[in-house]
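Entry type: protein chain
Record version: 2
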Amino acid sequence: MADGHAVVAPRITRLLLDTYAHRLPDVKGNSARATLQSLTPRERDVLLEIARGLINAEIAARLGIAEVTVKTHVGSILSKLALRNRVAAVILAYELGLID
């Protein structure tokens, strides 16, 4: 992960979400959406790319920013949303309907 690689392959992440997301506690939609407002526009962009299963290098290339900047945004997103890891960020994005 320190090199910008995903902990779990995007294909496996999708399979895990399809299989187990229904077992997770319900997210308080309004509360979670309000928390998303604490993110900067660029952090929201990075969150969407994380949720699409992209690694840091791919996010950097897609958004035209440095990979170290992506890493900084990822840390900020996890901190602001009180999430433990990228997988939790993906789950939150799916539960909030940010991506299909």
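Comment: Residues 20 and 77 are 23 Å apart (CA to CA).
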